[in-house]
Design a protein that fits this description.
29% of the residues lie in helices and 31% in strands. By secondary structure, the protein is α+β, with helices and mostly antiparallel strands. The chain has a four-stranded antiparallel sheet with strand order 2-3-1-4.
């Protein structure tokens, strides 16, 4: 299984609880192997199997839990 790196900004996080909420939501997606959400920089770095997930899936999950995702960079 191939693993690719994705990165995007996350707007609307104001505390550690927000950061954890976004991180847990992304970690729950199928094919995601690693997630690092940084409150200070407002960014998310994800390693995931591109055959299991799309950038649109990542954005949709962040928006589902109440935050805004910027443009995803990655494959």
């Amino acid at each position: 299984m191939t693993v690719e790196h994705y990165q995007f900004s996350v707007s609307g996080m104001s505390c550690e609880h927000c950061r954890c909420r976004v991180q847990r939501a992304l970690e729950a997606l199928p094919g995601v192997s690693s997630v690092e959400v940084d409150l200070e920089t407002g960014s998310a770095d994800i390693e995931a199997a591109p055959e299991s997930i799309t950038p649109e899936d990542l954005v949709a999950k962040v928006e589902e839990v109440g935050y805004e995702a910027g443009e995803v960079t990655g494959p």
